[in-house]
Write a structure and sequence with these properties.
The strands form 3 sheets. The chain has a 3-stranded antiparallel beta sheet with strand order 1-3-2. Helix 3 packs parallel to helix 4 and helix 3 packs antiparallel against helix 7. The chain has a single domain, classed as Orthogonal Bundle (Transferase(Phosphotransferase), domain 1). It contains 11 helices and 8 strands. It is α+β, with helices and mostly antiparallel strands. This is Fungal-type protein kinase domain-containing protein. InterPro entries: Kinase-like_dom_sf, Pkinase_fungal.
Length: 302
Protein backbone atom coordinates (compact mmCIF):
# COMPACT_ATOMS: atom_id res chain seq x y z
CA UNK A 1 0.00 0.00 0.00
CA UNK A 2 1.01 3.63 -0.47
CA UNK A 3 -0.42 6.80 1.10
CA UNK A 4 -0.99 10.06 -0.74
CA UNK A 5 -1.23 13.16 1.45
CA UNK A 6 -1.95 16.47 -0.25
CA UNK A 7 -3.74 19.80 0.01
CA UNK A 8 -6.49 19.80 -2.60
CA UNK A 9 -8.31 22.88 -3.84
CA UNK A 10 -11.57 23.23 -1.93
CA UNK A 11 -13.38 24.51 -5.03
CA UNK A 12 -12.48 21.48 -7.15
CA UNK A 13 -14.22 18.12 -7.24
CA UNK A 14 -12.22 15.93 -4.87
CA UNK A 15 -10.12 13.03 -6.09
CA UNK A 16 -12.20 10.46 -4.13
CA UNK A 17 -15.35 11.80 -5.84
CA UNK A 18 -13.73 11.55 -9.26
CA UNK A 19 -12.49 8.04 -8.54
CA UNK A 20 -16.02 7.15 -7.50
CA UNK A 21 -17.22 8.26 -10.95
CA UNK A 22 -14.37 6.28 -12.55
CA UNK A 23 -15.40 3.18 -10.61
CA UNK A 24 -18.99 3.56 -11.86
CA UNK A 25 -17.73 3.72 -15.44
CA UNK A 26 -15.57 0.64 -14.88
CA UNK A 27 -18.64 -1.35 -13.87
CA UNK A 28 -20.20 -0.61 -17.27
CA UNK A 29 -17.12 -0.64 -19.52
CA UNK A 30 -14.88 -3.70 -19.31
CA UNK A 31 -12.07 -1.78 -21.05
CA UNK A 32 -11.69 0.34 -17.91
CA UNK A 33 -11.96 -2.41 -15.30
CA UNK A 34 -8.56 -3.29 -13.83
CA UNK A 35 -6.92 -0.20 -15.35
CA UNK A 36 -7.90 2.29 -12.64
CA UNK A 37 -6.27 3.10 -9.28
CA UNK A 38 -7.57 1.02 -6.38
CA UNK A 39 -8.51 3.44 -3.60
CA UNK A 40 -8.45 1.46 -0.36
CA UNK A 41 -9.24 4.23 2.13
CA UNK A 42 -9.46 8.00 2.26
CA UNK A 43 -10.05 10.79 4.75
CA UNK A 44 -10.92 14.45 4.27
CA UNK A 45 -10.13 16.94 7.04
CA UNK A 46 -12.91 19.41 7.71
CA UNK A 47 -10.82 22.52 8.35
CA UNK A 48 -9.55 24.35 5.27
CA UNK A 49 -6.79 26.92 4.85
CA UNK A 50 -9.46 29.63 4.57
CA UNK A 51 -9.97 29.43 8.36
CA UNK A 52 -6.29 30.19 8.91
CA UNK A 53 -6.33 32.99 6.33
CA UNK A 54 -9.43 34.48 7.94
CA UNK A 55 -7.83 34.35 11.40
CA UNK A 56 -4.84 36.22 9.98
CA UNK A 57 -7.15 38.80 8.36
CA UNK A 58 -5.91 37.91 4.89
CA UNK A 59 -8.07 39.56 2.18
CA UNK A 60 -10.44 37.15 0.36
CA UNK A 61 -9.66 34.26 2.73
CA UNK A 62 -11.63 31.71 0.69
CA UNK A 63 -9.73 32.39 -2.55
CA UNK A 64 -7.49 29.42 -3.30
CA UNK A 65 -8.64 27.63 -0.16
CA UNK A 66 -7.30 24.08 0.24
CA UNK A 67 -8.29 21.01 2.25
CA UNK A 68 -6.03 18.24 3.50
CA UNK A 69 -6.69 14.76 2.12
CA UNK A 70 -5.21 11.37 2.95
CA UNK A 71 -5.68 8.63 0.37
CA UNK A 72 -4.40 5.06 0.57
CA UNK A 73 -3.89 3.12 -2.66
CA UNK A 74 -2.63 -0.24 -3.79
CA UNK A 75 1.08 0.19 -4.59
CA UNK A 76 1.98 0.29 -8.29
CA UNK A 77 5.16 0.19 -10.36
CA UNK A 78 6.44 3.20 -12.37
CA UNK A 79 6.42 3.08 -16.16
CA UNK A 80 9.85 4.74 -16.21
CA UNK A 81 11.51 1.41 -15.39
CA UNK A 82 10.30 -0.09 -18.68
CA UNK A 83 11.81 0.08 -22.14
CA UNK A 84 11.06 -1.01 -25.71
CA UNK A 85 7.94 -3.07 -26.37
CA UNK A 86 7.23 -3.39 -22.63
CA UNK A 87 7.11 0.40 -22.36
CA UNK A 88 4.91 0.72 -25.44
CA UNK A 89 2.48 -1.95 -24.19
CA UNK A 90 1.86 -0.31 -20.80
CA UNK A 91 1.78 3.18 -22.33
CA UNK A 92 -0.72 2.01 -24.95
CA UNK A 93 -2.94 0.47 -22.26
CA UNK A 94 -2.97 3.76 -20.34
CA UNK A 95 -4.25 5.54 -23.45
CA UNK A 96 -6.94 3.09 -24.49
CA UNK A 97 -8.19 1.77 -21.16
CA UNK A 98 -8.25 4.86 -18.98
CA UNK A 99 -8.44 8.61 -19.55
CA UNK A 100 -7.93 8.43 -23.26
CA UNK A 101 -10.87 7.00 -24.71
CA UNK A 102 -13.51 5.52 -22.50
CA UNK A 103 -13.14 7.79 -19.47
CA UNK A 104 -12.77 10.93 -21.56
CA UNK A 105 -15.86 10.08 -23.60
CA UNK A 106 -17.71 9.36 -20.34
CA UNK A 107 -16.85 12.83 -19.00
CA UNK A 108 -13.79 12.22 -16.81
CA UNK A 109 -10.92 14.47 -17.93
CA UNK A 110 -7.52 13.66 -16.42
CA UNK A 111 -5.59 16.76 -17.71
CA UNK A 112 -2.27 16.00 -16.01
CA UNK A 113 -0.63 13.23 -18.04
CA UNK A 114 3.02 12.84 -16.98
CA UNK A 115 5.46 9.93 -16.56
CA UNK A 116 4.92 9.94 -12.81
CA UNK A 117 1.22 9.24 -13.36
CA UNK A 118 1.73 6.28 -15.73
CA UNK A 119 1.90 3.12 -13.63
CA UNK A 120 1.48 -0.64 -13.94
CA UNK A 121 1.17 -3.88 -11.98
CA UNK A 122 1.42 -7.62 -12.61
CA UNK A 123 -1.71 -9.71 -13.14
CA UNK A 124 -1.66 -13.30 -14.39
CA UNK A 125 1.84 -12.83 -15.78
CA UNK A 126 0.91 -9.67 -17.72
CA UNK A 127 1.68 -5.99 -17.14
CA UNK A 128 -1.49 -3.95 -16.64
CA UNK A 129 -1.24 -0.22 -17.33
CA UNK A 130 -2.89 2.39 -15.09
CA UNK A 131 -3.25 6.14 -15.46
CA UNK A 132 -2.88 7.35 -11.88
CA UNK A 133 -3.42 10.58 -9.91
CA UNK A 134 -6.79 12.28 -10.49
CA UNK A 135 -6.47 15.22 -8.09
CA UNK A 136 -6.34 17.72 -10.99
CA UNK A 137 -9.03 15.99 -13.04
CA UNK A 138 -12.46 17.39 -13.80
CA UNK A 139 -15.92 16.06 -14.61
CA UNK A 140 -17.93 17.15 -17.62
CA UNK A 141 -21.21 17.27 -15.70
CA UNK A 142 -19.95 19.55 -12.92
CA UNK A 143 -21.23 23.10 -13.43
CA UNK A 144 -18.96 26.11 -13.13
CA UNK A 145 -15.83 24.56 -14.69
CA UNK A 146 -14.87 25.85 -18.13
CA UNK A 147 -12.12 23.27 -18.56
CA UNK A 148 -9.70 26.11 -19.34
CA UNK A 149 -7.77 26.16 -16.07
CA UNK A 150 -4.04 26.02 -16.75
CA UNK A 151 -3.00 22.82 -15.02
CA UNK A 152 -0.48 20.11 -15.78
CA UNK A 153 3.23 19.34 -15.58
CA UNK A 154 5.07 21.78 -17.86
CA UNK A 155 7.55 19.44 -19.65
CA UNK A 156 4.68 17.19 -20.75
CA UNK A 157 1.91 19.68 -21.47
CA UNK A 158 0.68 20.25 -25.02
CA UNK A 159 2.40 23.16 -26.74
CA UNK A 160 -0.93 25.00 -27.13
CA UNK A 161 -1.33 25.06 -23.35
CA UNK A 162 2.19 26.41 -22.85
CA UNK A 163 1.47 29.45 -25.01
CA UNK A 164 0.68 32.86 -23.51
CA UNK A 165 -3.05 32.36 -24.14
CA UNK A 166 -2.87 28.85 -22.74
CA UNK A 167 -1.19 30.02 -19.56
CA UNK A 168 -3.92 32.65 -19.13
CA UNK A 169 -6.55 29.91 -19.30
CA UNK A 170 -7.88 31.06 -22.68
CA UNK A 171 -7.35 27.71 -24.41
CA UNK A 172 -9.91 25.01 -23.69
CA UNK A 173 -8.26 21.77 -22.56
CA UNK A 174 -9.25 19.16 -25.15
CA UNK A 175 -8.69 15.44 -25.62
CA UNK A 176 -5.94 16.08 -28.15
CA UNK A 177 -3.98 18.02 -25.52
CA UNK A 178 -3.90 15.03 -23.20
CA UNK A 179 -3.00 12.67 -26.05
CA UNK A 180 -0.17 15.00 -27.04
CA UNK A 181 1.03 14.81 -23.42
CA UNK A 182 1.19 11.04 -23.81
CA UNK A 183 3.52 11.54 -26.80
CA UNK A 184 5.82 13.84 -24.83
CA UNK A 185 5.86 11.31 -21.99
CA UNK A 186 6.85 8.53 -24.38
CA UNK A 187 9.69 10.64 -25.79
CA UNK A 188 10.90 11.54 -22.29
CA UNK A 189 10.89 7.96 -21.06
CA UNK A 190 12.25 6.23 -24.16
CA UNK A 191 15.12 8.70 -24.49
CA UNK A 192 16.18 8.32 -20.87
CA UNK A 193 19.10 6.11 -21.93
CA UNK A 194 20.26 8.42 -24.73
CA UNK A 195 23.11 10.67 -23.63
CA UNK A 196 24.45 13.65 -25.52
CA UNK A 197 27.20 16.11 -24.66
CA UNK A 198 28.04 16.41 -20.96
CA UNK A 199 25.92 13.30 -20.32
CA UNK A 200 22.63 15.18 -20.71
CA UNK A 201 19.51 13.65 -22.17
CA UNK A 202 18.07 15.65 -25.08
CA UNK A 203 14.92 16.47 -23.06
CA UNK A 204 16.45 17.18 -19.64
CA UNK A 205 16.34 20.94 -20.11
CA UNK A 206 12.55 21.00 -20.43
CA UNK A 207 12.19 20.44 -16.69
CA UNK A 208 14.21 23.58 -15.91
CA UNK A 209 12.33 26.03 -18.15
CA UNK A 210 9.23 28.14 -17.67
CA UNK A 211 6.17 27.50 -19.82
CA UNK A 212 7.02 29.86 -22.69
CA UNK A 213 10.66 28.74 -22.98
CA UNK A 214 9.63 25.09 -22.75
CA UNK A 215 7.11 25.61 -25.55
CA UNK A 216 9.85 26.97 -27.82
CA UNK A 217 12.18 24.04 -27.10
CA UNK A 218 9.44 21.46 -27.58
CA UNK A 219 8.20 23.07 -30.78
CA UNK A 220 11.72 22.91 -32.22
CA UNK A 221 12.18 19.32 -31.03
CA UNK A 222 8.84 18.33 -32.56
CA UNK A 223 9.87 19.72 -35.93
CA UNK A 224 13.48 18.57 -35.98
CA UNK A 225 14.13 15.85 -33.35
CA UNK A 226 17.80 16.68 -33.14
CA UNK A 227 18.81 13.42 -31.50
CA UNK A 228 21.12 11.43 -33.79
CA UNK A 229 19.27 8.25 -34.74
CA UNK A 230 22.38 6.10 -34.15
CA UNK A 231 22.26 6.99 -30.44
CA UNK A 232 18.93 5.23 -30.04
CA UNK A 233 19.51 1.51 -29.57
CA UNK A 234 16.06 0.38 -30.74
CA UNK A 235 15.41 1.36 -34.37
CA UNK A 236 11.69 0.60 -34.18
CA UNK A 237 11.28 2.79 -31.09
CA UNK A 238 13.17 5.57 -32.85
CA UNK A 239 10.91 5.28 -35.89
CA UNK A 240 7.87 5.37 -33.61
CA UNK A 241 9.05 8.64 -32.04
CA UNK A 242 9.61 10.19 -35.45
CA UNK A 243 6.20 9.00 -36.68
CA UNK A 244 4.40 10.37 -33.61
CA UNK A 245 5.89 13.82 -33.94
CA UNK A 246 5.25 13.82 -37.67
CA UNK A 247 1.56 13.26 -36.88
CA UNK A 248 1.61 16.10 -34.32
CA UNK A 249 3.24 18.40 -36.89
CA UNK A 250 0.64 17.50 -39.50
CA UNK A 251 -2.29 18.20 -37.17
CA UNK A 252 -0.72 21.44 -35.99
CA UNK A 253 -0.19 22.60 -39.59
CA UNK A 254 -3.78 21.73 -40.51
CA UNK A 255 -5.19 23.68 -37.54
CA UNK A 256 -3.10 26.76 -38.38
CA UNK A 257 -4.14 26.54 -42.04
CA UNK A 258 -7.80 26.35 -41.05
CA UNK A 259 -7.34 29.33 -38.73
CA UNK A 260 -5.77 31.41 -41.51
CA UNK A 261 -8.57 30.52 -43.91
CA UNK A 262 -11.18 31.56 -41.35
CA UNK A 263 -9.44 34.88 -40.85
CA UNK A 264 -9.32 35.50 -44.60
CA UNK A 265 -13.04 34.83 -44.79
CA UNK A 266 -13.63 37.44 -42.10
CA UNK A 267 -14.13 35.19 -39.09
CA UNK A 268 -12.15 35.69 -35.88
CA UNK A 269 -12.09 32.33 -34.16
CA UNK A 270 -10.14 31.86 -30.96
CA UNK A 271 -8.64 28.73 -29.42
CA UNK A 272 -11.02 29.03 -26.49
CA UNK A 273 -13.95 28.43 -28.88
CA UNK A 274 -12.50 25.19 -30.23
CA UNK A 275 -14.49 22.08 -29.47
CA UNK A 276 -14.29 18.47 -30.54
CA UNK A 277 -16.74 15.68 -31.19
CA UNK A 278 -16.38 11.99 -30.49
CA UNK A 279 -15.35 11.51 -34.12
CA UNK A 280 -12.58 14.11 -33.63
CA UNK A 281 -11.31 12.13 -30.64
CA UNK A 282 -11.33 8.83 -32.51
CA UNK A 283 -9.80 10.40 -35.61
CA UNK A 284 -6.91 12.01 -33.73
CA UNK A 285 -5.98 8.76 -32.01
CA UNK A 286 -6.42 6.79 -35.24
CA UNK A 287 -3.91 9.03 -37.02
CA UNK A 288 -1.24 7.71 -34.62
CA UNK A 289 -2.47 4.12 -34.70
CA UNK A 290 -2.32 4.12 -38.52
CA UNK A 291 1.46 4.64 -38.57
CA UNK A 292 3.56 1.63 -39.56
CA UNK A 293 5.61 1.78 -36.37
CA UNK A 294 2.52 1.75 -34.12
CA UNK A 295 1.23 -1.29 -35.97
CA UNK A 296 4.60 -3.03 -35.65
CA UNK A 297 4.85 -2.36 -31.92
CA UNK A 298 1.27 -3.54 -31.39
CA UNK A 299 2.04 -7.01 -32.79
CA UNK A 300 2.70 -9.71 -30.20
CA UNK A 301 6.43 -10.31 -29.78
CA UNK A 302 7.71 -13.57 -31.22
Amino acid sequence: MVAKIFWGEASRTSEPEILGKVDEIAKVHSSVKGHIPELLWHYKFTNSTSAIREALSVPDPTTGSRILYILVFRKLKPITELYGRELFDVWYQCILCTCHLTLWKEGVYHRDVSPGNLMWYWQDGKRIGILNDYDLSSLADVTGSRGNECIGTIPFMAIDLLSATGQRGEVKHLYRHDLESFMWCFAWISLKGVRLFQGLRPVDEWATLDARACAVEKFFFQGHIEVPAHLHKDKLMWKFLVDCFHVLNTHSFNRVTQLYRSMVEGDKPTNSEESESESDIDGFLLSFKNTESWAALSKPSQ
